[in-house]
Protein 1
Amino acid sequence: MLVVIVFNKYCWAWKVFRGWYVKRPDLRGTWKVELHSCWVNPETKEPVPPITAYAVIRQTLISMSFRLFTKESKSVLIAHSIEIQEADDLYKLVGVYRNEPNIELQGVRSEIHYGAFSLEIHGEPVTELEGHYWTDRGTKGRVQMSESARKYSNSYQSAEKLIR
C-alpha cells in the first residue's frame, strides 16, 4: 500500500516512467495566464483588454487541483479530465469551475458563476496550455498559459512576484 501511495504522489512524474508507463502530462506549478474575453462593454462598445491571471496546479497521478487567481476573483476546479487526443503526444485538459468574485464586486458588476474550459497541452515537458473557456453568464474567450514556475502560490500577489 505504501508503494502505491508514494507512486501516486511522486514517482508518476519521474522521467523514467513517462510515456511508456504513465501517460499523463505533468502540469504542476504556478502558471501565468492570459484571458482574452469576447465580451464587449455595452456602454463603450469596446472589447475588454486581456486579463492577466495565475493558475496554480497541484497534481498527483490520479488527482488534480486547479486554482485561478485574477485581481478581482478566484476560481476553483470542480471536475476535470485529461484526455489523450488523436496523436499520442497531444493531450487535452477539460474542466468545470466555480468563480467567486471579490466580495465588493458581488451584486455590483460580477456574481459567482460557473464555467468550463478546454485546453490543449503542448510540449514534453509541458511548455504551454491553450484553448477556450465559456461561462453560464454567456461570456467566452481564449486562454493561454505559457510561463510557469515549479513553486506553488496562494494568491495573485505571490504568483505575480514568482513569475515576472
Protein 2
Amino acid sequence: MNARRRRRRARSGGPRRRGGCAVVAALGVLALGVAGVVWFLSRTHPAAPVAERCVATVDGTSWALSPAQADNAALIAGIAVSRELPARAVTIALATALQESKLINVEHGDRDSLGLFQQRPSQGWGTAEQVQDPVFATGTFYDHLLKVPGFETMEITKAAQAVQRSGFPDAYAQHEGTARAWASSLTGFSPGALTCTLHDAAPTTADAVVARIQRDLGSDVPVQVTPTDGGATLTFPTAAVTSVEGQRDWALAQWAVAVAQPLGLTSVTVGDQTWDRSTGTWATSSAPVPAGTVSLTITTV
C-alpha cells in the first residue's frame, strides 16, 4: 500500500512540484504588478526634460554654457567679427565677462558696477542704462582693449586686467579654457565645434530674427526672407558682415546656433552642413547652401 502511494506521488510530482509551480505563479504575478507600476509612473510622472545647454568642443574637450550665456557670448563674438577684430580679442572679452558677471547681463554688482562687464558709471564707462545695454557695453570694452599695447600677444588675464583694473587681477585666468574654446568656435577657427541641445522652438517672426542679425552683426546686413509652409527661411551673405575671408562662414553659422534658443531657430545651414534643433548636432545637409551664405529656418507665429 505504501509503495503504491509513493508511485502515485512520483507520477503526480507530489507536494514539492506543486510548491514549485506556486512559486513560479507568484513570481509571474509579481512581475506583472511591477510592470503595471512602471507603466503607471511613466504616465503620471513623465521623465524630466533634457537640460538645455550649449557646448563648444575643441581639441577633445567640451566647455558648456547655458543658452542665456551662449546668447551673450554670441553677441560679444559677433561684434568682434563685424569689427574685424582678432580672435584673441574675443577670448579676452569672454574671459572678462565670465569672471565679472558669469556672462549674464546683471542689473547689480559691486558698488555701481552693472552689466556684462560690470562697468561703473562713476568711472566714466557710460550711464547706468548704457552699461546695461550689451551692445554698448561690448563695444566700449573693445574700444578700451584696442588701446592696450600688445594685447594680441599679452597673457589673457593681464590684458583683461589692463582694461578692467579689477581688485582680483588673477581671477580671469580660471576662465581661459572656456573663453578660448568659445572664441575659437564663434570666430570660425573650429568648424562644427559649437552645438546646442534645446527644447522645441517657440513660434517666432522673421522680423525678430532680422532685428537680431542686424543688432549683432551690422545694421546694413541684408537678409533674404523666404516664407515656407508654417515657417520661413532666412539667408544672409557673410561678406556683408566682414571682409575677412577664411572662417567667416563658420563663425556666423555658429553665432546663429548660439542664439538659436532666444530666436527660436529650428536649423542653421552652412555649406553642406546643418545643425538641427531636433538632434542638437551637425550633419550633412539635404539642401546645402552656396559658400558665403548662412541659412536659418524658423517656425512662424
Protein 3
Amino acid sequence: MSTMLTHLRGFKDPIHDAQGTFRSLLDANARPGTPYPITASMTVPSGLTAACAAGCLTLLDLDVRVWVQASFVSQVKDWLLFHTGCGFTQQPKEADFALIQDMAALPELSDFNWGTAEKPETSTTLLVQVESWEGGQTVVLTGPGILHHKEIAPNLPRHFWDFWLKNHQAYPQGIDVFLFTENAVMGLPRTAKSEVLL
C-alpha cells in the first residue's frame, strides 16, 4: 500500500459526516428516484466521487467483501482498505458490495449475488457512479416509497433498464443499487418497478 494514502484523509468529521451520509442513504433507499445530497468533505483517489467515497466509508467494514470494477485505479482499493478494512473478491457472486463506474461494461446484473428465497438480504448492493441525473433514457418508477410515479433519466445505458426489469421480477431476491453523482445519491431498491418511456 502506498504511504501517500495516509494523506488522503477519510471523513474530516468522522461522526457527523458518517451520520449525515447514512441518513442520505436511508432516505434515498426509502424514496426511490429522489436524489439526496451528501455533504461530507474529503480528499479521494482519482476516479472516485466524493459522494460515492462517503457511501463507501459509511457502508463498508471489516466484515464485507467488495468487488471493484477493473476500470478503477489500484489506489481506490488501497484507499478503501486503509479506511474501512474491507475485503475484496474478484468474483461478483461473492460480493456484498460492488463498486462500479462504467455500467456499459457490465454484461448482466445477474453476475452478482441475488440472495436466496430464504435470505434475500444476502444479495449484492451496487454502488454505481453516474455523471449526472440527466442525459439517460427516461423511465417511470413506481412502487413502495413513490407517490403515484417518479420520472428519472440518470446517465445509464439503455440495457441497464432491461436488466432492472428482470431484477424487479425476481423479488424478494434481487440486487439493490445506489447511484452516486459527485455530491448526491439516488436509491434504486429492488422493489422499484421501471417502465421505459419510448
